[in-house]
Amino acid sequence: MSAPALLQSELPGQTARRGKVRDIYEFGDRLLFVATDRISAFDWVLPVGIPDKGRVLTKLSEMWFGRLDVPGHLLSMNPADLPLPEGTDLEPLMGRSMVVRRTEVVPIECVVRGYLSGSGWKEYQKSGKVCGIQLPAGLVESQKLPEPIFTPATKAENGHDINISFEEMVDAVGEELSTRLRDLSMDIYQRGSEYARTKGIIIADTKFEFGQVDGELLLIDEVLTPDSSRFWPEDKYEPGRGQPSFDKQFVRDWLETTDWDKDSEPPTLPEEIVVRTREKYIEAYETLAEQPFPWK
C-alpha cells in the first residue's frame, strides 16, 4: 500500500484515449485496454486511486470471458503480444491489460436488473415503472424482481447514463439488433448470476457493452465486475433497504459525510477508505475466482 495508485498509464510515443478509469491504445485492428486504478464517484474522477483496482477488474473480466462461452473481443492478457514502443516498461501493465479486437461499438448500454435498486428504485417510487416496464405494486428497495428486466441506456455528452425504453432502443439501432442484444444480455446475466450465487454473491444488476466486426456481435469492455454491476453479499441481503456491496460504496458513503458540493474538485480520500475499498474489490475477486489475488 506504500506505492501510489496508478492514475494513468504511459506508452512512449503512443497517444491514449482516456476514459474515467481506462486508457485505450490503438494498434491497427487491435486495441490495448489498460484498467488503471483511477476511481470515479458522482461523475468525478477522484484525486487518489485504489491500488490494484484495475487488476481486480481485469482478472474478473478474464474469468468471465472464459466461463461464459460468449463471443468476445478478448484476444490476450499479455500486452507484449502487441508491437509496443521500444523501452516500454511492461511491469505496470501486467495484470491490468487486455489485448482486444477493435469493433464497431453499439451505442447502447445493455442493462439487466434482477433486483430493484439504484435509478430503477427511484423511478419505481415515482411511477411504478422502470424504463417503461410496469412492475407489481408494493415492491420495496432491493427486492428481487419476479423476473429480470432489460433496461437499456445511452450516454449523454456529459457522461451520464440515460435510461431509455426498448422501443427507443429499436428506433436507435433497429429491431433485429435490439432483440439480439436483449436476449443475449438476459442470457449472460442469468448464467453469471447463477454462478455468483453459488459463491454467495448476488449480482443485483449489471451492464454489458457490445461491438460488431463484420456483422458478428461481440461482448466487449469489462464483464460482470464490481464497477459494472452491483455485487451484494448474500448472507447480508435484506430487502427494504440499501445493501452492503463489493465495490466503491465506502468511497460514496465517505464523500456523503463531507461538505463536498459535487460541483467542484472532490476531496482526497483518507487512507482508511482507500484500504477498505481495495479489500472489498479483492474479496469479490477471490470469492468468485476461488483463488488468491496474485498481487495481494
Query: What average pLDDT do the residues reach?
Result: 93
- How many DSSP-defined strands? 17
The termini sit apart by: 10 Å
| Tertiary shape | globular
**CATH homologous superfamily (4th level) name of the largest domain:** ATP-grasp fold, B domain
Gross CATH architecture of the largest domain: 2-Layer Sandwich
Q: What's the SSE pattern?
A: EEEEEHEEEEHEEEEEHHEEEHH
Task: Give the helix proportion (percent range).
Answer: 25-40%
From the structure above, extract its key features:
five-stranded antiparallel beta sheet, Phosphorylase Kinase, domain 1, D-amino Acid Aminotransferase, Chain A, domain 1, six-stranded antiparallel beta sheet, 296 residues, alpha+beta, 17 strands
